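Priority: medium. Attachment 1 of 2:
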C-alpha cells in the first residue's frame, strides 16, 4: 500500500509536500503558472494536497519545539556538568543587562533556537508568494496549521514543565532523590543535588516561559510577513496600473 501511495505521489504533477522546502517549491510552481497567465481557482488544490500542506506546518512546529526544548534543557545540562559551579557563579554582560551564567551556557541556550529561527525564515520566504488563489490557499494551510500547533505546544510545554517544577522538584523531593545516590557515591550524590537544585529547576522554569515567548513571537512574525507582502504586492499592482494609464 505504501509503495502504491509513493508511486501515485510521484506521478502527480504537483505531489503532496513532505517538508517546508518541498512545500515552497510547489508554491513557487503555482506562482510561475499564474505569472504566465494561467488562472488557478481555489479547487485546483485537491483535499489530500491541502492536508499535505497542513501536515508540513504541523510537523515543522513539532520538530522545532522538540529540537529547541531538547537543546535548551539537555545541552545546557551537559554544559553544567562540564563547567560545574562556574556555570552558576559567573555572570555574563549582555548590552546593559547582567545575566546569571557563563557565556558558554547562554551560547548553548541561544543555539537551541536555530531550528525555530530557520523554519520561521522559511515561512517568511513562503509568504512572499502570497498572491493568487492557489498560492494563498497553500500558504495559509502551512502557516495557519504551524501557528496553531506552535501555540498549542507552547501551552502544553508550559503546563508540563511547571507541573514538574512544582510537584516533582520540591526541596524535599530533590533531597530524597540525591540521598538515594549517596549509597553509590557521596560525591555524585552531592553534585546531583546541586544539579537538580541549581540547574534543572531553573532550566525548566526558564524553558516554560521562553517557549511561550519564542513560539508566539514566531507566529506574530509569520503573520506580519504575510501582511507586509500583501501590502507590497498591492502597491506594486497600483503603481503598475498608474504607469499604464
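Attachment 2 of 2:
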Amino acid at each position: 500500500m505504501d509503495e502504491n501511495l509513493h508511486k501515485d505521489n510521484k506521478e502527480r504533477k504537483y505531489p503532496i509536500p513532505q517538508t517546508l522546502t518541498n512545500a515552497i517549491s510547489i508554491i513557487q510552481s503555482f506562482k510561475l503558472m499564474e505569472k504566465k497567465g494561467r488562472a488557478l481557482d481555489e479547487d485546483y488544490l485537491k483535499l489530500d494536497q491541502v492536508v499535505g500542506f497542513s501536515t508540513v506546518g504541523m510537523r515543522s512546529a513539532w520538530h522545532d519545539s522538540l529540537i529547541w526544548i531538547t537543546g535548551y534543557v539537555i545541552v545546557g545540562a551537559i554544559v553544567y556538568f562540564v563547567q560545574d559551579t562556574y556555570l552558576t557563579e559567573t555572570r555574563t554582560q549582555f548590552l546593559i543587562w547582567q545575566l546569571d551564567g557563563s557565556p558558554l551556557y547562554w551560547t548553548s541556550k541561544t543555539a537551541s533556537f536555530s531550528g525555530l529561527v530557520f523554519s520561521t525564515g522559511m515561512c517568511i520566504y513562503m509568504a512572499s508568494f502570497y498572491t493568487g488563489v492557489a498560492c494563498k490557499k497553500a500558504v495559509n494551510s502551512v502557516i495557519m496549521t504551524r501557528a496553531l500547533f506552535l501555540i498549542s505546544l507552547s501551552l502544553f510545554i508550559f503546563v508540563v514543565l511547571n507541573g514538574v517544577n512544582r510537584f516533582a522538584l520540591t526541596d524535599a523531593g530533590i533531597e530524597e532523590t540525591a540521598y538515594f545516590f549517596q549509597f553509590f557515591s557521596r560525591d555524585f550524590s552531592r553534585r546531583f543535588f546541586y544539579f537538580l537544585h541549581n540547574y534543572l529547576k531553573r532550566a525548566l522554569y526558564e524553558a516554560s516561559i521562553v517557549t511561550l515567548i519564542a513560539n508566539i513571537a514566531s507566529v506574530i512574525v509569520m503573520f506580519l510577513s504575510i501582511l507586509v507582502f500583501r501590502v507590497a504586492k498591492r502597491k506594486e499592482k497600483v503603481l503598475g496600473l498608474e504607469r499604464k494609464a
